[in-house]
Write a structure and sequence with these properties.
Two copies of one chain form a homodimer. By secondary structure, chain A is of the alpha/beta class. The first copy, chain A, contains 14 helices and twelve strands. The first copy, chain A, folds into three domains: 44 residues, lambda repressor-like DNA-binding domains (434 Repressor (Amino-terminal Domain), Orthogonal Bundle), CATH 1.10.260.40; 128 residues, Response regulator (Rossmann fold); 129 residues, 3-Layer(aba) Sandwich (Rossmann fold), CATH 3.40.50.2300. In chain A, β8, α11 and β9 form a beta-alpha-beta unit. The N terminus of chain A is likely disordered. At the A-B interface, α4, α5, β2, α6 and α11 of A face α4, α5, β2, α6 and α11 of B. Chain A binds a DNA duplex (16 and 16 nucleotides) through α2 and α4.
DNA sequence: CTGAAAGCGCTAACAA
DNA sequence: TTGTTAGCGCTTTCAG
């Protein structure tokens, strides 16, 4: 630790000297080349082990002009959505020999830009952006330098790819589920400007109309928060006749709604059925057991990396927009409406 | 591949040529040196902007032998604990000019070792390990090369620092809270081998004895999961006389316990008071409203970075063990015991 | 205040 | 199979 910084860490030259061979031979051995005589290979490995040699990734990348690093900038590490997405990315990266480095923008555009800049200066071979709130322009500009894939948000630029969940369809599935149970008065608490919220709302309306319930469409505005769901739900419960089912824009809002339902002396699903969106771990808690729409998060991560590498390793030029289908996860918060209520 | 990789990204030489100056002058300007004539500075900045020049962090670090990067390896990105810890680290890093790069070991020792190796080869100036399940030996060996700070786990090595929460004390606070409310028969669902669980258990026992309730100590084994808390709680509820308060090893287990309580036709806090640990966002949900022990997560992250930089920037040699005090967050899951039960 | 030269640790031809 | 020679893009003496 003598000098602090990178104190005399052994270099390839040290290993070469100790093993009595040339630098290039050491380099070959370190990279697992096959045409090296067993004797020398051993000598090199021994010397490296004794010295505690560890290749310097930066020096290597500098000459190779390739880092084998993919940077992942997520807008908010608190969003559990990303834990799975990143897991999917890592899983796929491991198979293809890339390393994943994550970065966060802490909910602020300027910080997201900084985080991306760090990745850019590090010369990551590709960058995956998780639901960035960043300007399109910044992203497009960066995409000129390095392949970029957006997860959870539609790409706009010509050289930017994206992997998203089909929010419209997810919302339609939610409505269809309620209708299949016998509900007709199905209301929606929307997610305001939250990512995907407008599409979820459109999907809700489309499904209601398609199923002949256009006249019963009822939307109150909310947010992707417990508070938003709570407020929105209170509004809905005050309506007469009351909706028999509520589709909230995401799980957190649904939980806020659940709370409002209980505060009002009602029970889910007995009095009101409730559907969320995202299938977060919250929804799976036995104590909550929320019917919800699941986004294939891990798969989204895997596809994001695959899509990225098509550009990095295979020179793809045409943009790609991957859209995955969500699916219903039925739990205990939905049930057929009460008999008396059905025809009211 | 020709183009793809790092296709002719402009270098400092390109900028120098375009601005009609030497490489070194460009270097000076880029680093914001003060003794450069205004005219040339402008010329350089202009050329850089036109070219879209972006310094190559690797090349710079190679010669400086310093990356200004701190690597953070977290054992599991799903653990919401880390979102705050990382936020704290980033906050502090921003103030000191360091960049933070996160890595995950996905719950497996071997992958944690890989993740750490990536950081080591990248030559991060320091590494923060979040609740690693990694062998001490691996950590100690790495600490010879680069400063390392453990968060959420006590350090063993001589050159390894740590930042932890005082689990014993937290458990004692939980017990004291129950006693203050009038409870005497306070049971504990422990967390098995989970990080900090043994200390929480010891804290529980110590507090019970200290408060003269040694004879009422009652511990059932559990895990840091909903399932573990559920099972443990069922066991406790079957006891006669029944405990009037339960302290679960963490929030998730507490929620499992809450579920068991309701399944048994009882209510919290009316029939049984419940205390968790960690103050996760779960506990704050209105629907759950769990009394719990809060670990100062953001502060832990900040201190981890500060502690790290004391070695990186200031050559500290003596190990440092930072232990922070947790605090009680009282919510709706605890209340005085029922009158009739009190003296039973 | 500015430029020339050397070199960080490594890989990539090219020789031998 | 192995060694030699050039750099990768940048900072850093050291002259001027």
């Amino acid at each position: 630790m003598a000098s602090k910084l990178q104190p005399g860490k052994p270099t390839i030259t040290d290993v070469a000297r100790r093993a009595g061979v040339s630098k290039s031979l050491v380099s070959l051995v370190m990279r697992g080349a096959d045409h090296v005589s067993p004797g020398r290979r051993q000598a090199v490995n021994k010397a490296a082990a004794e010295l505690g040699y560890r290749p310097n990734a930066m020096a290597r990348s500098l000459v190779q002009r390739r880092t084998h690093l993919v940077g992942v900038m997520v807008s908010d590490l608190h969003n559990p959505f990303f834990a799975d997405v990143v897991a999917g990315i890592q899983e796929q990266a491991e198979r293809t020999g890339y390393k994943v480095l994550v970065n966060s923008g802490n909910r602020a555009p300027a910080r997201e830009a900084d985080a991306m800049e760090t990745l850019l200066q590090l010369r990551a071979d590709g960058i995956i952006l998780g639901s960035p709130v960043l300007d399109d322009e910044v992203i497009v500009r960066a995409s000129l330098e390095v392949p970029i894939v957006l997860v959870g948000r539609e790409a706009r630029g010509p050289a930017v790819d994206s992997v998203t969940n089909d929010d419209r369809k997810g919302a339609e599935i939610a409505v269809e589920h309620c209708v299949a149970l016998g509900h007709r008065r199905i209301a929606h608490i929307d997610g305001g400007e939250g990512a995907g919220a407008p599409d979820r709302r459109r999907g809700y309306e489309a499904a209601m109309k398609r199923l002949g319930l256009g006249a019963l469409v009822s939307v109150v505005s909310g947010t992707y928060t417990e508070e938003g769901g709570h407020r929105g739900c209170l509004l809905l419960l005050a309506q007469r006749p009351r909706p028999t089912a509520i589709f909230a824009a995401n799980d957190l809002a649904a939980i806020g709604a659940l709370n409002a339902i209980e505060e009002s002396g009602l029970k889910a699903p007995d009095d009101v059925s409730l559907v969320g969106y995202d299938n977060t771990s919250l929804a799976a808690l036995r104590h909550i057991s929320l019917t919800t729409i699941h986004q294939p998060r891990i798969e989204m991560g895997q596809l994001a990396l695959i899509t990225l590498l098509e550009r990095v390793d295979r020179d793809r030029e045409e943009p790609r927009r991957v859209v995955l289908s969500p699916r219903l996860v039925a739990r205990a918060s939905t049930a057929p409406p009460r008999e008396g209520v059905r025809e009211s």
